[in-house]
């Protein structure tokens, strides 16, 4: 079955440092999505990338989708304490019979030291 | 517009008991899914449904049953609870419109924290 690997599992940064998490799928994806989950909360959608080589920015967050549509990254510039949480990538892939599955990576837990 | 509503928020079961986790959405989404979240394991797909009357298994379906009689509701049943099913369960719904302009953002419920003793 489809697998989505995400690294690192944990990242501790000083406030103001940059942060990057990487995602790699075992199969070619229809799209890749990124979610953020605050401690004790539920995952919240951040963005969706669909096109090969796509790059999108949201303020200090930069998202990339690889040319082969199998890998992606999320980069945060100058982290702030509000960035604390777990970041998940999720790959959407065709699972047969007109159906799709959204498979999540294990997430990267970001801690920001003030 | 409530989005995705899960009940209950917390539940303690004894081994062997059965229960149903409820999930309802008011966004008229066709695609609904159940995930479990365990420390260090991310979100693992249990079952999903692409529309009323249609369900399919995800990555970890054993021990769980689902049905989808209406577009709005997608309950998850534990027939005989086991300690290994202690987890946080999330229900999600997605518009999943594939006719151009894919919009596959998943909206999650608040989660159900289940403990099986």
Architecture overview:
The complex is a heterodimer of chains A (114) and B (117). Chain A is mainly β. Chain A is built from no helices and eleven strands. Chain A has strands at 4-7, 10-14, 19-25, 31-37, 44-49, 55-58, 61-65, 71-76, 85-96, 99-104, 108-113. In chain A, strands 2, 4, 5, 9, 10 and 11 form a six-stranded mixed beta sheet that branches. A five-stranded antiparallel beta sheet of chain A has the order 1-3-8-7-6, with no helix packed on it. In chain A, strand 6 and strand 7 (61-65) form a beta hairpin. Chain B is mostly beta strands. Chain B has no helices and eleven strands. In chain B, strands 2, 4, 5, 6, 9, 10 and 11 form a seven-stranded mixed beta sheet that branches. Chain B has strands spanning 4-7, 10-13, 19-25, 31-38, 42-51, 54-57, 64-66, 76-78, 87-94, 106-108, 112-116. Chain A binds chain B through residues 1, 6, 9, 30-31, 33, 35, 42-45, 48, 50, 88, 90, 92, 95, 98-107, and chain B through 31, 33, 35, 40-45, 48, 50, 56, 58-59, 90, 94, 96, 102-111.
Describe the sheet with the most strands of chain B.
Answer: 7 strands, mixed
Query: Which chains share the greatest interface?
Result: A-B, 27 and 27 residues
Can you tell me the overall shape of chain A?
globular
Order of helices and strands of chain B: EEEEEEEEEEE
- Mean of all residue-level pLDDT scores of chain A: 94
The quaternary state of the protein chains shown equals heterodimer
Strand content of chain A: over 45%
How would a crystallographer describe the biggest sheet of chain A? 6 strands, mixed
User: Low-confidence parts of chain B lasting 5 or more residues at pLDDT below 50?
Assistant: none
> Count of helical segments of chain B?
0
Radius of gyration of chain B: 14 Å
Give the tally of β-strands of chain A. Answer: 11
Helix coverage percent of chain A: under 10%
* DSSP strand tally of chain B: 11
Number of helices of chain A: 0
Mean pLDDT of chain B: 92
Classify the beta-strand content of chain B into a percent band.
over 45%
Category from helices, strands and their pairing of chain A: mainly beta
């Amino acid at each position: 079955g489809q697998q989505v690997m995400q690294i690192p599992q944990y990242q501790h940064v000083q406030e103001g440092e940059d942060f990057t998490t990487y995602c790699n799928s075992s199969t070619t994806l229809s799209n890749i999505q990124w979610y953020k989950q605050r401690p004790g909360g539920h995952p919240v959608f951040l963005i969706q990338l669909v096109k090969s080589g796509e790059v999108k920015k949201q303020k200090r967050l930069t998202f990339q989708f690889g040319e082969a549509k199998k890998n992606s990254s999320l980069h945060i510039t100058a982290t702030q304490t509000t960035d604390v949480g777990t970041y998940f990538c999720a790959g959407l892939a065709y699972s047969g019979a007109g159906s799709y599955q959204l498979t999540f990576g294990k997430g990267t837990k970001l801690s920001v030291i003030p | 517009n409530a989005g995705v509503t899960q009940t209950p928020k917390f539940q303690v079961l004894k081994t062997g008991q059965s229960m149903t986790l409820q999930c309802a959405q008011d966004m008229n989404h066709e695609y609904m899914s159940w995930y479990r979240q365990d420390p260090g394991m991310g979100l693992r797909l249990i079952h999903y449904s692409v529309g009323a009357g249609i369900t399919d298994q995800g990555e970890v379906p054993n021990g769980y049953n689902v049905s989808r009689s209406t577009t709005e509701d997608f309950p998850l049943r534990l027939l005989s609870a086991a300690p290994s099913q202690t987890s946080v369960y999330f229900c999600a719904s997605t518009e999943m419109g594939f006719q151009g302009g894919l919009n596959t953002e998943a909206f999650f419920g608040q989660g159900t924290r289940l403990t099986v003793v």
